[in-house]
Amino acid sequence: MDYQKILHEIEIEVAPSLGQGAVADYIPILSEANAEDFAMSVVTVAGDRFHVGRAATPFSIQSISKVFTLLVALERDGDALWERVGREPSGTSFNSIVQLERENGVPRNPFINAGALVVTDALISRCADEDPRDFLLAMMRRLSQSARVRIDAKVAESEKIWGDRNRSLAYFMKSFGVLENRPEDILDTYFCQCALEMTTGELARAGLFLANDGVDPLTSEKVAAHDAVNRINALMLTCGHYDRSGDFAFRVGLPGKSGVGGGILAVAPGVCAVAAWSPGLNEAGNSLSGSLALELFSAKTGLNLF
Ligand code: DON
Q: Are 163 and 191 in contact (CB under 8 A)?
C-alpha cells in the first residue's frame, strides 16, 4: 500500500475544510492554535512511517491522553475498574454532569471527563511512591520513543485556572465515594495529562501497541495484555468521540480517540496506528478536518473494520 501517496491525496482533499471548525477557547491558551494547521502520520506494525503536513509541530493531545491512563488503570485494577466507571456511550458532551447524579456518581465510560477523572484516580493510586505526572510522561516518552515529548506547563496552568467544570465533576463523584484520592490531586494530574504535547508521528508511534495486540512491534515490549487492548480499542470505537462516537464509527470504522487540541489517534488492528491533527473543531469538540482525514484514510486504504 502506498501510504505516502494516500496521505498526499488526503492533504489535498481536506484543504477546503481547514479553518471551517472552531478552535477550542474555553481554555484560553488553546485558542492560540491555528485552525488552518493540518498534519497526519501513519506508523505501521512493520515500522514504516509516513507523514504529511505539519507533522513536526507538537500540539496538546488533551483527551487522547485518556487512552494511555486507561491502560495504566486497567493494568492496576483489571475488571474491578468497571465497578466505578461504565463502558457505555454517554450520548452527552465530554464535560457533562447530567447523568452522574442519576447513576450514583459512576460515569458512563472512561473517556468522558468524569470517567477519565476516575481513571486518573486509579493512576495516582498505582503511583504510590512516585509522582504520577512523571510516571505518565516517562511512559509517553517510552511508547513514542521520543524524549522530546513534554507536559506544557502553561497549558496545564490554564486548564487549572479554567477547570471549574472538572472540579465540579471530581467533587461530585467524591460525594458518592467513587474516588480514592483527593480531588485536587486527581485534577492536578488530569490537567497535566491533558497538557502532554506531541506530534502526530509521536502519537501514532505511542499508539502502535494498540494495533499489535499489546506488544510494541518495534521494541518487542509487552505494553498491555491482550484483553486490555481489546477493551481499549472497543471503548475507542464506541465512546472515543463523545456524542459523535456513532458518527465517527459510521464514517471511519476504526477505534479512535479525539482531543480538543484537534488531535485524533486511530488504530487499524494488525496494520498501523494513525494520528491526524487540525485544531478546528466540530460542535462536539472533535477535529473537523481530522475526522474527515481519517474517513478518507479508511476509505482509501480499505482498512475500515466493517
Ligand atoms: O477536560 C478538559 O476540559 C480538557 N482539557 C480535555 C477535554 C478534551 O480534550 C475533550 N475532547 N474532545
A: yes
Which residues in 201-226 are b (16+ Cβ under 10 Å) and which e?
Answer: bbbbbbbbbbbbbbbbbbeeeebbee
Q: Would you say 111 and 256 are in contact if contact means Cβ atoms under 8 Å apart?
A: no
pLDDT in tens, 112-129: 999 999 999 999 999 989
Assess whether the C-beta atom of 194 lies below 6 angstroms from ligand 1: yes
Q: Which three cell numbers stand for residue 109?
A: 465510560
Q: In the structure grid, which three cell numbers stand for residue 77, read together?
A: 485494577
What is the reported pTM? Answer: 0.97
Q: Is the CB of 260 under 6 A from ligand 1?
A: yes
| CB neighbourhood size of 47 (10 A) | 10
Residues annotated as catalytic (active site), given as ranges: 63, 66, 190, 242, 260
Other beta carbons within 10 angstroms of residue 172's beta carbon come to 17
The gap from C-alpha 81 to its chain's centroid, in whole angstroms, comes to 19
CA distances from 286 to 24, 39, 105, 212, 282 (A): 10, 15, 25, 26, 6
**What is the atom index within ligand 1 of the atom nearest the CA of 63?**
9
Q: How far, in Å, is the centroid of ligand 1 from the Cα of 34?
A: 18
Residue whose cell numbers read 512511517:
49
Dump pLDDT digits (tens) for 169-184. 999 999 999 999 999 9
